[in-house]
Amino acid sequence: MTKWNQKLMKLLSLNGTTRSFNIYCFITKSLSNCGKTFLFSPLLLCYTKNKAFNQKKENKIMTKDLNTRLENAAKGITPQTRPDERRRYLGSLRERVLVRMTVEETNNQALDTLFLKHINDFKGYTILINGKMPQNNFINKLMGLCSQQDIKFTLINDDTAKDEPNATGVLVVSKTAINHYRIEINQVYAPEAPHEQLSEPKKESFWNRLFRKKD
Fold it and tell me: Sorted alphabetically, which Pfam families does this protein's record hold (predicted)?
């Protein structure tokens, strides 16, 4: 091995394979222009083998990924879109939501009554019920009314169901996107304001009217 080639090999040993090959080509060209000759470095062969190995590895990964997709397609399994959004909406998507109630709101009697009052609005939709929240009278009434009115409902017990107060408790969803801007129960149906009882005016007696001073 020539003196130039020894120096070159020492320099290349300090760098990665791809970078070393680029350095090797640059120095080779420079020295050739200067009339220097040296032995063909074994590093070039190493680079070629390494590149072929990486290409083979990439092809293997792509083939495995393709096979997985084909198997999932044959089983009817499709890749899940927007997983973060689905975790918030019991596996559904926000664009499909008509009405939403939180776990905490299902224990609010006024909101429960408001939701059940509009139960007929949900025909043609599906009601998703968080199966991990504590059962209460509202949920029992809701499932009973759904059965009577022939409204589809599903108990969700997978990882999308949470028992935190702000987690989704009840969801009315469509099969396709409806893109409603307001979906929270107190936005879709404003709670009724309490009626103020007005006191009736007192009836003035005959004698009071008779002797009342005139202005």
Answer: DUF1694
